[in-house]
């Protein structure tokens, strides 16, 4: 579904990510883990067209995404839930959801209201808040809305950047419960996560990044049990306390 | 002295509406791109001059939509040449770039229409109508009505169409707007087109009461800018209120104190307002989390 | 040293202009260049250093011109008195202007300055009793020391003033005052947190900028010998801005080069033959550059627009007999080109080409300073009693009481939105509590400004990093040392012995602080170029520079790798060992558990638990609110 070949990119002259190769199959949940500064966010930004690759290419369902700006990538069926959520804060929850479907070509009434019903069913809280300004939602609600907005695009592939960022443990668990549900429905997803064992718990396949390169790869279950990955990347996350 | 107050207010409101319309144009681009066209006065003057040349061919009413379309095209060029190349630079290059574009536009129009101010024929008879103790010229009604109509139309577009919401989304979060499929470059171009269209329209609306010339826009644009800042650059309502405040202050001062000082009270109100409320009367504080 | 030689050579050349100028016209042109250069040096304090675009300096320039002119004509004041008065009066107006401008930025700031200048223009025009109004004021050059000033003599006067201003502005920029101006551009909140009043810094910047511009205005009055209010208008501001942007900001050479361009360009455009050559050259250059970048596949068709315009201008140049009518168009196009292609200005662009890479190797570690950092200080306890903070109807903190002991690390945890950052922001004066009392030692800080609280010995780091990104790493720490100086503004302007001594000591101290957090090798890099984790360490070094008794750390480990966290913990342990009071907000529980002596837990703005790490983590309320997710996630 999503194929990344020899991808390099960066800001200015220096590349931040080097020669990445990744494959995401239909219905798979792939996670990309690694410490801060490893290049995870840069990888996602390059995939969704916010950054131009300096080398290599990204294929989405056979379409070459190279050089396409983010709004074109979005129209081809890739939805990106950005780091820090980036909601349209002055707009209502409903407007945020409607704009989530902006790029869709099947913007007929029936299809849209079907999807709207679906996301409001997954996130019942948003139904209560639908006319509230998105900027006034709490952190957890904002993350839910960001995911819901991406779902409105009915994407072929959804990429999520640090869905746990800045959330208290309780809310992180709620967000990951949603992600697990979406995976069970057979959606194709890529998750970037700093708290590796969170992501490894829900993912099918995992890539480990360090210094802009992929250093490990394998089925999530296998990496989860791997001592060296545990030591290097699973430290210091708040759920490990008890 | 007080018996002429309604009359003074009428002229203040007329002026104020025009300032408000110009301010509205600044607000349109500011929300999408955090930039404004500092050459807005030239857009206004060029709009009025094109209107002047078209009126003999099309008549005043048919000329209006053509000038609005022309203003839109002008805005697209301003955005493409002066704003887009400087948008992502950390310095405020766009301030100077738009001023520079205005300099070129003014000079070119001087070479086409000459430097002298020209009279602009009024489409309505110069027969004053009495409203509430004040005599109002039909042209003044046209100015107020036309300006309000245009602003309401743009406001409705922004609030109730998906494209309008896309404008607002771009204003809130440019990158995220791209991620949901909004072509943010086009949105910003579009906001400049709308902005210069309002300026051009303001130009043909005021032209019958002022004179028409390449230099006519500078003072109007500066006052429109004061109005926009006073009201708060993020608010359409602020633009209108700011315009009215400055227009009325100007009319009152001109009549009761001195025409020479007519601009001072409005500017003092502006300075006082910004001392107390740096984001303008209706402006939104873009809070930064620390 | 090469820079000094270049400066001396250029100044020698400028001093000899009266000998070199072929006639009075060119001598006058050179005089105006230097007058403009002085004005631009003043304007650059606001634009280049504080980082705001002022559209109002024509008003200050006019005030200077009229002050000097009127004093000389009506009161017979000597030249020096008239010029000093021009600077002083203008500085006074600058201070007044600073107030509405204090909290405004970008277009708002531009409008404030423009509104001020517009009022000045109206008053000059209307107050005919004083200014002669629109008729204008004739200002003959006053005698200097009894001798009449000819054009050459006056040029030398202007040159001397220019050289003086050049030196003073250079010293200012390199001093702690200059650093505080630049810090305004980075983050006023951070500047205040270091005990430096952003208000005072901005007012000072305005006064100095206005004084220099006012002196330039005075020189202008004597140079032109006739001034009218209309001469000081919006167009003059545009010329000033053009000159500074084309020349280059935050650089004295930029002001000089900009003045040359602004004064000489109109003359150059008068010569059609010269213009044809330039237009063709420009068209060829731009065509070539565009062809190259298009060949590399970086742009679409729209990349050809500038080239097309340049070619059109070149073709037009050969159609026209004279450029007089089109001069402004060419001027505007040049300006557009300069902004697009030379965003750093002529000088900035040249400097970037020639400047050697910043020296990244550090000198030998000053051991004396490193020892000083670990030197014991007396910490101060912080007492919080019944503090409530409201935002509109929302209660961000309600009735929170706690005491943070000296030489301890006090943890503050809780779910997001529990009020942890509100706590720190209230303690540092960014928010004012609506009820309750906070004491640092015995001093209540309710209602005090962030800078006042910082001066009581409270320093902090920020959850969203607030570095002065465009300043170097060591300069960031030096801003933290702002209050360590005893020398004053005059010392800094003339670089007195006392000032140089202090500057050297403080640089050593800053270097030691960098060594303490492990950043000694990065001293001369731009702060924004540091990796994320190191930026957090730099914030700690900068906070420590203020020699705080209380240090508040808002999520210092956010975004750090486990290995960085170990280093951070080692640093914090050493800070605590010195006797300081530490407050730590953190989500990384293992770090909180390892470091904290006591922990306070907040939930929905209320304190729900407090005690030793073990007590807190076994408290059922805490488990429910904060740690309960463990089961849910498992």
Describe this structure in words.
The complex is a heterotrimer of chains A (242), B (290) and C (634). With 242 residues, chain A is α/β, with parallel strands linked by helices. Chain A has ten helices and ten strands. Chain A has a six-stranded mixed β-sheet with strand order 6-7-8-3-9-10, sandwiched between helices. Chain A has a four-stranded antiparallel β-sheet with strand order 2-1-4-5, covered by helices on one side. Chain B has eleven helices and two strands; from the N terminus they run ααααββααααααα. The mean pLDDT of chain B is 90. Chain B has one domain (2-276): ABC transporter involved in vitamin B12 uptake, BtuC. Chain B has 290 residues and is mainly α. With 634 residues, chain C is an alpha/beta fold. In chain C, α21 (473-480) packs across α23. Helices cover 61% and strands 10% of the residues of chain C. Chain C has three domains: 35-232, no CATH class; 272-354; 367-633, P-loop containing nucleotide triphosphate hydrolases (Rossmann fold). Chain C has a six-stranded mixed β-sheet with strand order 8-9-10-5-11-12, with helices on both faces. Chain C is elongated.
Based on the coordinates given, report the CATH architecture of chain A: 3-Layer(aba) Sandwich
Largest sheet of chain A: 6 strands, mixed
Uncertain regions spanning at least 5 consecutive residues of chain A: 234-242
The CATH topology of chain A turns out to be Rossmann fold
Q: Averaging pLDDT over every residue of chain C, what do you get?
A: 87
In CATH's first tier, which class of the largest domain in chain C applies? Alpha Beta
Global morphology of chain A: globular
Average pLDDT score of chain A: 85
Order of helices and strands of chain A: EEEHEEHEHHHHEHEHEEHH
> What is the distance, rounded to the nearest whole angstrom, between the alpha carbons of the first and last residues of chain A?
39 Å
Instruction: Sum up the overall morphology of chain C in one term.
Output: elongated
- CATH first level of chain A: Alpha Beta
How is the largest sheet of chain A built, in terms of strand order?
A: 6-7-8-3-9-10
Topology, element by element:
The complex is a heterotrimer of chains A (242), B (290) and C (634).
Chain A: E1 2-11, E2 14-24, E3 29-33, H1 40-47, E4 53-60, E5 63-64, H2 70-75, E6 78-81, H3 93-100, H4 109-122, H5 124-128, H6 139-151, E7 157-161, H7 169-184, E8 188-193, H8 196-202, E9 205-210, E10 213-219, H9 220-224, H10 227-233
Helix pairs in contact in A: 3-6
Chain B: H1 5-33, H2 40-58, H3 60-87, H4 93-113, E1 129-131, E2 134-136, H5 138-160, H6 162-172, H7 174-179, H8 184-206, H9 217-231, H10 236-256, H11 264-276
Antiparallel strand pairs in B: 1-2
Helix pairs in contact in B: 1-5, 1-6, 1-8, 1-9, 1-10, 2-3, 2-4, 2-8, 2-9, 3-4, 3-8, 5-6, 5-8, 9-10, 9-11, 10-11
Chain C: H1 2-15, H2 17-20, H3 24-50, H4 57-75, H5 79-101, H6 106-126, H7 128-131, E1 137-138, H8 151-174, H9 176-186, H10 188-193, H11 198-224, E2 226-227, H12 234-247, H13 252-269, H14 272-295, H15 305-319, H16 327-341, H17 345-354, H18 367-374, E3 382-391, E4 394-404, E5 409-413, H19 420-427, E6 435-440, E7 443-444, H20 450-455, E8 458-460, H21 473-480, H22 489-494, H23 497-516, H24 532-545, E9 550-554, H25 562-577, E10 581-585, H26 589-595, E11 598-603, E12 606-611, H27 613-617, H28 620-627, H29 629-633
Parallel strand pairs in C: 5-10, 5-11, 8-9, 9-10
Antiparallel strand pairs in C: 1-2, 3-4, 3-6, 6-7, 11-12
């Amino acid at each position: 579904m999503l194929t990344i070949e020899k991808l390099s990119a960066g800001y200015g002259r220096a590349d931040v990510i080097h020669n990445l190769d990744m494959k995401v199959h239909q219905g798979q949940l792939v996670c990309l883990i690694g410490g801060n500064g490893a290049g995870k966010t840069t990888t996602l930004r390059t995939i969704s067209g916010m950054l131009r690759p300096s080398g290599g290419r990204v294929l989405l369902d056979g379409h070459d995404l190279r050089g396409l700006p983010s709004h074109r990538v979005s129209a081809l069926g890739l939805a990106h839930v950005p780091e820090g959520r980036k909601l349209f804060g002055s707009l209502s929850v409903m407007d945020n959801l409607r704009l989530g479907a902006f790029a869709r070509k099947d913007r007929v009434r029936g299809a849209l209201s079907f999807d709207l019903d679906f996301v409001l069913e997954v996130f019942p809280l948003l139904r209560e808040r639908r006319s509230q300004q998105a900027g006034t939602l709490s952190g957890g609600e904002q993350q839910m809305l960001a995911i819901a907005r991406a779902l409105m695009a009915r994407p072929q592939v959804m990429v999520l950047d640090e869905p746990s960022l800045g959330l208290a443990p309780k809310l992180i668990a709620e967000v990951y419960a949603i992600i697990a549900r979406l995976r069970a429905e057979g959606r194709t997803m890529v998750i970037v996560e700093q708290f590796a064992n969170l992501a490894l718990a829900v993912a099918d396949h995992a890539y480990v990044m360090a210094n802009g390169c992929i250093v490990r790869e394998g089925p999530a279950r296998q990496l989860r049990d791997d001592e060296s990955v545990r030591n290097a990347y699973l430290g210091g996350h708040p759920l490990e306390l008890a | 002295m007080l018996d002429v107050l309604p009359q003074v207010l009428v002229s203040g409101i007329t002026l104020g509406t025009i300032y408000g319309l110009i301010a509205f144009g600044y607000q349109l681009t500011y929300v999408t791109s955090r930039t404004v066209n500092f050459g807005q006065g030239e857009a206004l003057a060029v709009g009025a001059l094109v209107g002047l040349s078209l009126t003999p061919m099309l008549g005043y009413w048919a000329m209006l939509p053509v000038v609005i379309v022309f203003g839109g095209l002008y805005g697209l060029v301003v955005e493409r040449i002066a704003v887009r190349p400087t948008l992502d630079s950390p310095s405020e290059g766009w301030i100077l770039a738009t001023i520079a574009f205005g300099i070129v536009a003014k000079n070119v129009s001087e070479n086409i229409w000459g430097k002298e101010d020209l009279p602009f024929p009024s489409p309505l008879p110069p027969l004053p109508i009495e409203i509430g103790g004040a005599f109002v010229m039909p042209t003044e009604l046209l100015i107020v009505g036309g300006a309000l109509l245009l602003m309401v139309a743009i406001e409705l577009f922004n609030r109730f169409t998906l494209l309008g919401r896309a404008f607002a989304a771009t204003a809130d979060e440019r990158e995220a707007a791209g991620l949901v499929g909004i072509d943010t470059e086009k949105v910003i171009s579009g906001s400049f087109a709308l902005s210069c269209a309002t300026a051009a329209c303001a130009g043909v609306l005021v032209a019958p009461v002022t004179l028409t010339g390449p230099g006519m826009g500078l003072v109007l644009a500066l006052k429109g800018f004061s109005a926009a800042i006073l009201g708060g650059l993020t608010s359409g309502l602020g633009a209108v209120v700011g315009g009215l405040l400055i227009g009325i202050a100007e009319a009152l001062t001109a009549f009761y104190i001195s025409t020479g000082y007519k601009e001072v009270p409005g500017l003092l109100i502006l300075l006082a307002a910004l001392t107390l409320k740096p984001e303008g009367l209706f402006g939104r504080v873009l809070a930064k989390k620390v | 040293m090469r820079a000094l030689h270049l400066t001396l050579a250029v100044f020698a050349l400028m001093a000899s202009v009266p000998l070199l100028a072929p006639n009075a016209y060119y001598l006058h042109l050179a005089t105006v260049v230097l007058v403009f250069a002085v004005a631009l040096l003043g304007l650059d304090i606001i634009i280049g250093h504080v980082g705001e675009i002022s559209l109002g300096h024509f008003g200050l320039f006019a005030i200077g011109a009229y002050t000097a002119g009127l004093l000389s004509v009506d009161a017979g004041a000597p030249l020096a008195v008239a010029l000093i008065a021009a600077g002083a009066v203008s500085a006074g107006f600058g201070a007044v202007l600073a107030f509405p401008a204090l909290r405004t930025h970008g277009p708002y700031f531009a409008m404030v300055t423009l509104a001020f200048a517009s009022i000045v223009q109206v008053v000059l025009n209307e107050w005919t009793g004083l200014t002669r109004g629109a008729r204008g004021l004739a200002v003959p050059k006053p005698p200097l020391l009894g001798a009449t000033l000819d054009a050459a003599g006056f040029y030398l006067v202007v040159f001397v003033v220019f050289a003086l201003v050049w030196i003073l502005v250079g010293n200012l920029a390199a001093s702690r005052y200059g650093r505080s101006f630049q810090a305004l551009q980075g983050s006023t909140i951070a500047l205040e947190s270091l005990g430096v009043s952003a208000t005072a810094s901005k007012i000072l910047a305005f006064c100095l900028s206005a004084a220099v511009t006012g002196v330039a205005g005075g020189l202008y009055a004597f140079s032109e010998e006739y001034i009218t209010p209309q001469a000081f208008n919006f167009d003059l501001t545009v010329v000033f801005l053009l000159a500074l942007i084309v020349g280059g900001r935050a650089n004295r050479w930029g002001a000089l080069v900009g003045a040359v361009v602004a004064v000489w360009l109109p003359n150059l455009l008068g010569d059609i033959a010269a213009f044809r050559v330039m237009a063709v050259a420009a068209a060829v250059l731009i065509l070539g550059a565009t062809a190259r970048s298009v060949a590399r596949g970086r742009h679409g068709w729209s990349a050809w627009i500038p080239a097309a315009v340049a070619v059109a201008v070149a073709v037009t140049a050969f159609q026209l007999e004279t450029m007089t009518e089109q001069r402004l168009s060419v001027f505007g196009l040049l300006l557009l080109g300069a902004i697009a292609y030379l965003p750093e200005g002529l000088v900035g662009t040249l400097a970037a080409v020639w400047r050697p890479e910043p020296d990244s190797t550090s000198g030998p570690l000053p051991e004396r300073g490193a020892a000083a950092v670990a030197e014991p200080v007396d910490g101060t306890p912080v007492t919080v009693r019944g503090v409530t903070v409201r935002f509109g109807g929302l209660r961000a903190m309600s009735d929170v009481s706690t005491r943070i002991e000296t030489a301890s690390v006090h943890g503050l945890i809780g779910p997001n939105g529990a009020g942890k950052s509100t706590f720190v922001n209230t303690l540092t004066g960014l928010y004012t509590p609506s009820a309750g009392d906070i004491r640092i030692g015995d001093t209540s800080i309710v209602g005090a400004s962030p800078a006042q609280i910082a001066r009581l010995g409270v320093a902090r780091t920020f959850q969203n990093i607030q570095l002065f990104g465009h300043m170097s790493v060591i300069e960031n720490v030096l801003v933290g040392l702002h209050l360590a100086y005893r020398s004053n503004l005059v010392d800094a302007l003339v670089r007195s012995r006392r000032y140089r001594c202090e500057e050297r000591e403080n640089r050593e101290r800053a270097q030691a602080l960098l060594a303490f957090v492990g950043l000694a090798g990065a001293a001369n890099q731009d702060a924004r170029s540091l990796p994320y984790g190191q930026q957090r360490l730099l914030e700690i070094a900068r906070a420590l520079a203020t020699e705080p008794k209380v240090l508040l750390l808002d999520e210092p480990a956010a975004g750090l790798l486990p290995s960085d966290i170990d280093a951070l913990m080692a640093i914090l342990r050493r800070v605590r060992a010195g006797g300081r009071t530490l407050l730590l907000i953190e989500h990384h529980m293992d770090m909180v558990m390892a470091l904290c002596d006591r922990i306070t837990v907040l939930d929905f703005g209320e304190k729900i638990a407090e005690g030793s790490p073990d007590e807190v983590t076994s408290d059922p309320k805490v488990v429910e609110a904060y740690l309960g997710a463990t089961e849910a996630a498992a």
